[in-house]
Structures are given as structure tokens and as C-alpha cells.
Amino acid sequence: MCGIVGYVGPRPALPVLLDGLSRLEYRGYDSAGVAVFDGDRVLACKRQGRLSRLEAALAHEILAGGGTGPDGRRARTGIGHTRWATHGVPSDENAHPHGDCSGRFWVVHNGIIENYRELKEELAARGHRFLSQTDTEVIPHLIESLYEGDLVRAVGAATRRLRGSYAVAVMSPLHPDTLVAVRQESPLVVGLGEGENFLASDVPALLEYTRNTYILDEGEMAVLTPDRVEVADRAGRPVAKRVFRVTWDASMAEKGGYGHFMLKEIHEQPTALSQTLAPRLTEEGEVRGEEEALDPAWLARFRRVHLLACGTAYHAGLVGKYLLERLARIPAEAELASEFRYREPLVDRDTLAVVISQSGETADTRAALREARARGAGVLAVVNVVGSSIAREAERVLYTWAGPEIAVASTKAYSCQVAVLTLLALHLGRLRGTLPAEEARRLGRSLRALPAVVERALSGAARVEEVARCVAVHEDAFFIGRGLDYAVAQEAQLKLKEISYIHAEAYPAGELKHGTLALIVPGTPVVALATQPDLSEKTMSNVEEVRARGGHVYLFAPASLTGGPGEGPGGRPAPGGGEASAGAEAAAGVEVITLPEVDPRLAPAAAVVPMQLLAYYAAVARGCDVDKPRNLAKSVTVE
Ligand code: F6R
To answer: Which domains are seen in the chain, by residue range?
Structure first.
């Protein structure tokens, strides 16, 4: 989820590219670069850090060029990129654009190439030299190896060999005034000008120049010259695109048309999950064990697991604990990092400390990491920001590839953390022999299909908005569930509290009667989660206890557990029924909202979606500043 810009036309390309990149800064990045063609030579320049470093380097290169090097001021064609590291640490070498051995093909890329290792080995064996640790660099080398005089054909052939999600833009001095771009599961927009054309991964980069765009669809390739834009489908057939006129203002455009970053990030979850999961699971559902963190020899040493984190990341750890114990039969504890560091924990070299953090900079989590390491534990970080302090200090890392998270309230990072922990539990289950091979493959295939399930959960947003408007008028709310549902309930109450300022509590459903029921008065909103077949009857009894005291229950459950419409046991969608639609005939005081069907062990990533939406819409209804809740910061680097 980096940023791409491109330009062909009569203007000096560099200012257009740098301006476009500056409009994408809000997305977060760790390095930036450009490649422009001055009519004779290519000037490629890239720097780790802020755009200002790139600008300073460019100014220096242009001056230093002094008639001998390429002259960036004459360039009328170019591509640019802001990188948010996935493969390879943030560095000048890993920044884009990347070139081939001959410097004839230059590429910027967003997304992840799943099969880059195989391709890199193959190309290296044929003599190609690689300068970076990125997955992207295989693309210009592939194009080089397939080029026979036709750039469009070579790019088409190269991208057909890629597996994964990508948006790619290619420039070549052999084809002046031409850019070739391909979109596969990663957004790309063409900006249509008069005698000039533009390319960007996000609309804000274009708004200064044009509001007329082509939004590329999956598998489409665009060829841009100053006077024409031709679009073709995967099979090379021309596509007649409709012009999409952007009417958003700049701030709406930054949010991709969504009202807030939080809503945008909630909706990005299917993409974020597939970026996190698809490279790590084969289509048959087997965990690819190539990452150092999944090395069987290293993992074999551990007899217990401590999951250490704060806030939302801790709630992901709670799901991890359940799954590690259930699938891998290894004792696991989830613990708040701020508590762990001060309680002289019983941790030794048999312990695997799994440190979970979106930012990788949370002070309490870093301190817990050091505490665990000092006591001899092996430390595995589950982190979103590549090259962050926690990623650097941990022994091994499993990245969540959720992309930059801008809203203070964490959403897509949570679901990706849950996905990575599920994958770890599945992998350990196989290594420890507690999960039979066929059962593991079945679960692996379901895990790979999780993005589609989350997509279905998102399709029920309108119904959740209705529920949220009812909850928004209250000052207290409760969330109940058992097992994995209780873990999700804890994340749900935090989300509601932090952005809507409604006081909320999560309770294990069976624990209500030991005190909390005293707080249930007529009308109190109680959100009940029931996704676990072995526990749902028990939860239903607790729902009855609440209803009998006049509480208003919103029951979130799959149709297979409520007997209502929605998906049947065979997984077929109910006729006319979207997800999260009203389910079983509601008893007075109980409203049923249907969740998508999924393997119950994977239910948290789907069930959390309506919880995030509930918090979001309740906060909007109460007029709260959703993306920047009071008193909170995105990254808590102080104790
Ligand atoms: C809640 C939220 C926080 C963070 C917590 C840890 O929405 O975002 O609770 O989860 O501060 O932050 P990271 O994951 O960056 O360590």
C-alpha cells in the first residue's frame, strides 16, 4: 500500500511527480523515489526518509549532472513512488523505482509478489543481478528477459508470471513518451489531461491536474502516451473505459471517498488480509514455512507461549492464546505488556514471547520484549511497520501486511494480527503433531478464503448502522460472549469506548450473573456474540437472563446457530439476504444480526467487522472526531 505516480506530456515531469507524491504523504511512507527520461538518458533517484531528502538529492544530482549526467529538468516522462516497506527494510536500495541490469526498464510497484523468490532464483541463475531485497525488483528483470522490441507485450508477459497483488507502472527509454501500467488487486487510476496523461494509485495525486479518470479494473493494462490512453483486459482485448469524473474534494479523496480513515481502513480489511495471508499459504492450505520465524528447528525449542501487547494488539493476542492452545496444545498466556514488565514473570528459554504491535514503537511493548529477552525467552514479533524498533529488537518477525493505518482506532491491523496468529497456531499444530494433516489443510484453505468472508461481513454495514444509531443514545453498553467470542467482545468494547465515548464493558457471558446483571435495566444495550457452535446454547441462556431484566440484546451470530435466514449450513447465501441482515424471528428485546458462515476458529476476523462498524457509526451519530479521538495518540512511545 505504497503510492504510485506517473506522467507523460509536455510539462517538466519532475515537479508533477514530486507534487503527486507529496499528495500521497498522508498515507505514510518510509522512502521515496523517481525515474525520469530526459530524451537521452534516465535519471533515477531514491532516498530513504521524507520527500524532502529526495528533493535535496535531486537538486544535487541535477546540479552535479552539469551537462554530463541526465538532465532532470528536460524530462517530460517519469514515474515516482512512496514506499511503505514490506519486503526488505526501508533503505535507499530498497526504495523504488527499480531497474533491470541494462537500465532500460524502470518499475514502481504497490502490493506483494507472492512468488518473487522462485522468480528471483530463476533470473539470478540466468545471470540477472539484483541490488535490493525487494520482491519488486524481479519485475524489471522479467521484462528485460522477455523483451523483444515490444514493451507492451513484454510487460503483459512479465505480469502474467506474477502471483499476488500488484499495481505496476513501467517506463523505458526505448519507448519515450510511454508508460505502461497494470492493475491486479491494488488500485490504479489514470488521469486524463489535454495532450498529457497521468497515473496514480490514489486520486489525491491527480486532483491538481484533472478530475477525469479511468479507474482500472482487475487485470487491466493501460498504455499512456501524451495523446492517448489505451486500456486492455488480461487477454489483451481492448476495453472501452467510461470516464469517471471525481467530484470529491482533496480531503475526501485522501480517504478514498470514505467519510473517515477509520471507515476506509475497515473496508480495506479484505485486501489487507489477502496481502498478509496469501503469500504464506498454498492454494491447498499448507503453510509455506520459508520465513525464518516459522523455522521448525527454532520453534521446536519452546514449551509455552506468552503473547505480549497493549490495547487492540493485546486483544488479538487473546485470540492467539485460544488458538495456540486449541490447535497446537501448547500452554499460552496473553498478557498486557505494561503489567508483564513489572511482575517478575516466570519466563525462561523454553518460552516463546510473541510480541504484537501495529506501530512497532509502543514503549510498554518494547519494554516487555526486553524483559522477556533478558530472561532468555525467544522473541517473535508480529508487527506491521517494517524496520520499526520492535521488528529490529525481536529475534524473528512475522509481518502483518496491513498497509499504513492512519486512524487512531486500530482495525485492519487487528484482523491481520489475528490472521498471523492463526497461521502460527496452525503451523505449530502441524509441527507438534496435534493437528492432523488433512484437518490442517482444510483450516488453511478456509484461512486463505477469509478475505471473502470479511467482504461478506462488510456487506451488512447498513444494518449495523441502524443498530449503532440505537446504541448511540445510551451512555453504557455491554458486550458478552464465550471463548473466542469473549476475546472479540473485549476488542468491541474498546473500539466503542475510544471513539464514541460510550462507557462499555465486555463480559464473559457466563459471568454476568455474578455481579454485572445488577447493571442491566430496561433498555440497556447488550451486544451478544455467538459464533461458536459448542458454546452458543449457553450464550443464548445468558441472552435470556439479560432479556428477562429488560436489557435490549443485539445478537450477532451466523444463521446456522440461530436458525434464521442468511447462509444455510451448506454455506449458501439466503435468498435475498445480505450478511448482517435481520436473522431469526426476533423475540421481544432481542434483535438478531446474521454473520457470515465461517469455520468457528476463524470467526473473530469476521465477527469483529460489525463490531468496528458499530463503534464507527455510533461515534458518527454522536458527532465525535472519529479519526482523532480525544486524549489518544496513534503510537504510544511513552510509558
Ligand atoms: C486501539 C488502539 C490501541 C493500540 C495500542 C497498541 O484502537 O489502536 O489500543 O492497539 O496502543 O499499539 P501498537 O499496536 O502500535 O503497539
So the answer is: 2-253 (3.60.20.10), 261-448 (3.40.50.10490), 457-621 (3.40.50.10490)
